[in-house]
Amino acid sequence: MKSHLRRRTPAALVATLCLLLLAGCGLFEEETYHPPQGDGPWILVDLYHSRKQNHEDYRLSKGDYAYQGVFGWYRAFEHLESNGYKSRTIRTMPLSEERLEGFDVLFINLVDDKRPDFSDEEIGNIQRFVERGGGLFVIGDHTNVYESSARINPILAPMGIEVGYHTAIDYPPDHSVAGLAWIMVFDFDRHYLTRDVEMISLQTGAPVLGDHGIARLSERGFGDYWDPEDTSGYYGNWRFDGDPELEPQGRLPVVQAREYGDGRVVVVGDQNIFGDAWLYFGDNFEFLMNTFQWLAGAEDRPPLRDARPAGFNLGLDMSHNDFMVGRTAEDAYYVFYVNLNRDHAVTADARMQLETWDDALMLLDPTEAFDEAAIDKVRQYFRDGKTVVLSLEADRLSTASVELLAEIAPQFSVSVAETRYTVTDTDADTFENLDVPRVEGVFTLESEAMDVAGLEVSALPRGGENEDEGLSPYLLEITSEWGDPFITARSGGDVVDIARRKKIEDGELVVFIQDGFFRNRTLGHSETTAPTEQNADAVELQYRLLDYLKRASP
């Protein structure tokens, strides 16, 4: 062997090394399938019929705004594998009976027309796999996008399940996060999948038709039938056109779950619901973990939903701010929330209820009053030596925010034009209508508590990048004497407060008295659009704030 290598020319050696490097970069694809070995449960992930947003090739990351990366499945499978569930992928071979042998669950995620269709033999193999005791987990999507419904429905037909050629529509304010198709589902049947589940949220999905629905739209919901001429987004026309046979109405299911033969089947009508950007919104995570556990027949194990994700856990309370964490409205925080989960060491969980077990708590612009029990939960973070971040805009403080500050920071005050306002001495209406001037210009950040070196921010609305609109970057001209400076901003002789902090019991309260640079109107409304040059530092400030919280965690 050594003499053979010596006879090669340098050019041949270079070519060989290049081929090896290309193979390592994935340009020469190799099969990843191997039979299961050892204890499971074992999950086989079908990457032969689909590569969309899978857990091996895509992951939500800083600086990557590609759609498939934003909604990759890395976090879900990281949690599964951290808790004893093992997986294999099959990329280049069809699903034979032999290749399905030994697996507990077959996972098929949003098939598409760029990959091979299921053969009749494969359809039969999958059906027999379930009949003999396997678990089948299928993810569909709206309006037959990528011909997904047409390809998956022949497998599901004998099971009495069909992914509709519709978009599942429900209405604001009670059942919509944004628009008509980013919906919140509250209507559940009693089932293992729905244990500890209060709400799941789809980002444009399909109704899943059949007699085994366990999660449903409201009575006002309907299925908006697809327009095959619309190839831009594969949508319908966003209205009911009068034919209930074509566009069914009412409490349509978006999840089907049933036993079939000796096995089990779950079909969910949306791909994004469990992607990295949306997995920890509401109870999506709990629902997904229940699904894998039930399909694997592992209900006797400790619940997957109760295991803390690895790394730093940040709780975001949605029960007091009308789901502002996930909304795309101007003053909401959707892009901010997605960015929090771009940090691979952080799980930012937007919770339906205020909990106490996270490493830190973030309260974004509360608008609903905190009762005594909720206030005690906030105080529990201080007793446990943890940090609570309360993020506000001082020129539009809600009564709920003022009352919360009066409870946990009774001497909290802000100063505007040399007038000082204290939460315990000033009525809530005054705070709600506080007339705060704005200072124009981009401000350099300063802090002795955390690293803000090189960062400049303003609250410039994203539309302001167009100079014809005549918008100037601004911050609020406001200061505070409460606690200690956390972040200040300076432009020439102008200095304003961004955030203050104070030790409370064994923990710390950080109050952002202005956070316009964190809101959608500044960061944008899309998780797949990179920030403008003007607003990139606001995103970097998020990451540095997370670094501070991780260091401060007990």
From TrEMBL:
It comes from the Bacteria. Residues 71-290 form the DUF4350 domain. Pfam families: DUF4350. InterPro entries: Class_I_gatase-like, DUF4350. This is DUF4350 domain-containing protein. It comes from Persicimonas caeni.
